[in-house]
Amino acid sequence: MGTSNDVLVLVASGSGAMESSISNLFSRGEKVIVCCAGKFGERWVDMAKAFGLDAVVLKAEYGSVVNPEEVEAALAANPDARGVFVQASETSTGAVHDVRAMGQAIAKTEAIFVVDAITGLGPCR
Asked: 16 CB contacts (<8 Å, ≥6 apart)?
């Protein structure tokens, strides 16, 4: 996996892993930033709302991506954001987010960075 950190393996669908990350890392009412650039970004939005999170949605058109600068600006505007959600590779369109640059921006905050890498782990490293 290219990391010296712990790796968790879940026996679930990709959606099960997404739901698990929300239910185990966040509590109802907490603010999160959700990058939405396709069908799976929309799934993050729907799940965050279903779990009662206050979702700040950064929307990009299908085929485009949310830029790291947009994430950094959203974090600055929402310093109480507890997390950021994104897909490494938005499989519904083939668009690839710059998770490395996003991670560098998020690392300057206390927010948790949750990346759906089910189809993007290899190409995004």
From this structure: 10
